[in-house]
Model the fold of this input.
Amino acid sequence: MDTPQLSGWLLDIQRSSMHDGPGIRTTVFLKGCPLSCKWCHNPESQKFSPQLAYFTEKCTLCRRCESVCPTGAHTFSSQKHSFDRNACIQCGKCAKACPSGALKLFGYQATVEEVMAVVRKDKKYYDASSGGLTVSGGEPFAQFSFTLALLKAAREEGIHTCVETCGYASTEQILTFLPYVDYYLFDYKLTNDELHQAYTGVSNQKILYHLDLLYTHHAKIRLRCPIIPGINDTPEHFAGIHALEVRYPDLCGIEIMPYHDMGKPKATALCRANEIEAATASQAQKDAWRREMARCGCSESILNSL
Amino acid sequence: MYSLLFDDCLSRGKPLFSGGIRYLGGTLETYGNINVSDSLTAIKQLVYDEGKISVEELQHALAQNFSGCDSLRSLLLEAPKYGNDLDSADETAARFHNDLCSMIRGMAERVGLHSYLPVLINNSMNTTFGVTTGASADGRLANTYMANANNPMSGMDKNGITSMLNSLVKLDTKHHAGAVQNMRFSKEMFAGLFEKTKTLLSCYFENGGAQTMITVLGRGDLEEAMAHPELYPNLIVRVGGFSARFVELSHDVQLELLNRTLY
Ligand code: SF4
Ligand code: SF4
Done:
């Protein structure tokens, strides 16, 4: 297929991103991830297919969704609205009809050219700030051909490219991408592999191997470490972060990302079991982490990112 | 006496406004321009291109101030709005801007002036006039503020600051005598990401931007100041061409400011 016409599953395109890599950027969020982190703050990005979210508390019981749904997925009995997820074929009609924003369809298809039409609008801002395009997710490498075509298209127009990845893909894919990625935001989630498997669904061995591989190829990598209260805020993991800092002195920084629970309403709306108890990290908790990280040897720059 | 200070008045023996001065210029201020262009964009898309709303339905809804017409109003509100770097809305805004400006310029002779140019500053009059203006087809309710000058309608710029800045420069500055462009930044953005903010603004000026008026606020400051005015006697904000103590502004003007997008 002609590359500009290749299409991928998107969640959103966010312009003027200030925190997704160097400079001013446009971030393209793709849908679908091979991991299933229980703390995921973008739960709507995990599945590869579109999903209808139903935010119960916003529903005004107007019953418009019932009248437009082709499969009868919305039913009402004694002032109660039930949504049958199994009957839903994700046509999006009810989300369009809902006047109160209680229904939202996550996920849409767009071609490389359609995405680039948005991305190139801020070219001047990228050039002036050393910014560019960031492909995030979900997991960008999971939509292999689409992401590759998108990165190539950006490169052809002189746009800097960044990928936010969990590092989980085939090694061959990672190597194919190598010449087209200027900067990596690479997640480091858990040092203990058993816990890694329990909380994300996969082992961290391959991920760490890819980190090493990219580093040896002199890739520019910034490590991002989500810290989730009660799950990975342990001396073992803090020491693991410090070990990477020692092993890879030329990283473009290590950033601690304290957990926030803003993803929870979305998880509930997607009928995804709310799997962790954790609440947004408090200041006191962050201070305690900072002390513990310092004790585990983490550098000033890591502590300051918290 | 004042006329004495101007060339020609003395030699001609005539005061300033009675033929004493060689070139007499004036300006005309306009209000609600962006509400007009956003309304035209919505009407073009929903009534003519997509046929989702009929002219009669729209007239009825506007006359009723949208009461009982929520879904029609949602459609209008969802239609593209100026300030998001979307071609359809921005092209209408630019066309309306150019047409309005050239119409005003063309009236110079009729009003007895050598030059007559529009000014888009508004101060807080967009709100003063808004509270006596009916509902509009951009989804704006009756008796509420209108957009300030040629800025996006408060809160309708939702696509990031680069999009907003790109939209602003599509309205050519050569056609008018002055306009203000309001930008609200959070402290986190303005101070915390100062270099990036500086780059944003220099790009905006390179792209043809002529002016900016900046307010920097903590998130929630204005909400707090509305609830507890006694705690915020010195909170100064830019309105539209002038600065004011927030707590001394009228409730309607406060609302217009509160709803502007905070970057
Ligand atoms: S997305 Fe379509 S099928 Fe699913 S509930 Fe809504 S209208 Fe019904
Ligand atoms: S259309 Fe929206 S508000 Fe109305 S009943 Fe359905 S979910 Fe609730």
The interface with chain B takes residues 14-18, 23-24, 64, 97, 99, 121-122, 124-125, 128-129 of chain A (CB under 8 Å).
